[in-house]
Design a protein that fits this description.
By secondary structure, this protein is α+β, with helices and mostly antiparallel strands. The protein has nine helices and four strands, in the order H-H-H-H-H-H-H-H-E-E-H-E-E. 53% of the residues lie in helices and 11% in strands.
């Protein structure tokens, strides 16, 4: 018998919480920026906002929140192919909760396709997750407290003073608005790291029938 699995239940599930914590610990040991609860909750909020704004039904929006919350658990295995590992892990977890197969398919397709190296928007949930994940750039993701030892990933995240994802007035475009301290990281350095991610956001937005635009310090750059 199928069960209605809610986002609230997923957020309180001790096993999922542990996988997220341990995946983030593994990334921290490798020098990566924060991928813990702040990141997955922000990705869930943005993913849901996108689908709500575009008029998707409440359950699709909730499945996007669930996919976003679980999307990085594969990092507990290895950073390489973490999207695919995470999708397999999510299948096992959600199947054991008796979630309907159709809902599991939507979620694991989204998780398995969120990485810019291999991912593509295959359904509305995967498209929303791509944007929710890839637009999370902010100073608080940097763990390193020593500015003198910052690498390029630290610099481009720490340079971001303000970050917002929203729609334009007629809902024809999703806009990522950034305010960057160019003394910490020039705009070109940001694109060196994030260009592939932003191009995937363009594909995801196109799948959803809208444009993806990016403003940096008030100027349109994408």
């Amino acid at each position: 018998m199928s069960t209605v699995v809610t986002y609230k239940y997923i957020k309180q599930n001790p096993d999922i919480m542990e996988y997220i914590r341990r995946a983030d610990e593994a990334l921290q040991a490798q020098g990566y920026t924060e991928h813990s609860f702040a990141h997955v909750e922000r990705a869930a909020q943005v993913s849901a906002m996108i689908l709500e704004t575009l008029g998707y039904d409440e359950r699709t929006v909730e499945l996007a929140r669930i996919a976003a919350f679980m999307h990085d658990i594969g990092n507990v295995i290895n950073r390489a192919d973490h999207a695919q590992s995470g999708a397999v892990m999510a299948f096992r977890l959600l199947d054991n909760m008796s979630m309907p197969a159709g809902e599991i398919c939507s979620i694991i397709s989204a998780i398995g396709n969120h990485d810019e190296g291999t991912g593509l928007p295959l359904n509305p949930i995967s498209a929303a997750l791509i944007i929710g994940d890839k637009t999370d750039v902010r100073r608080t993701r940097v763990r390193n407290n020593d500015l003198l030892t910052f690498d390029i990933h630290d610099r481009v995240n720490y340079a971001v003073e303000y970050s917002k994802v929203s729609f334009n007035e007629d809902k024809s475009a999703i806009i990522l608005e950034l305010q960057i301290d160019t003394k910490i990281s020039p705009v070109l350095e940001y694109f060196e790291i994030f260009l592939g991610r932003m191009l995937l956001c363009q594909k995801a937005s196109k799948y959803l029938g809208v444009r993806f635009e990016m403003l940096v310090n008030g100027s349109k750059v994408l």
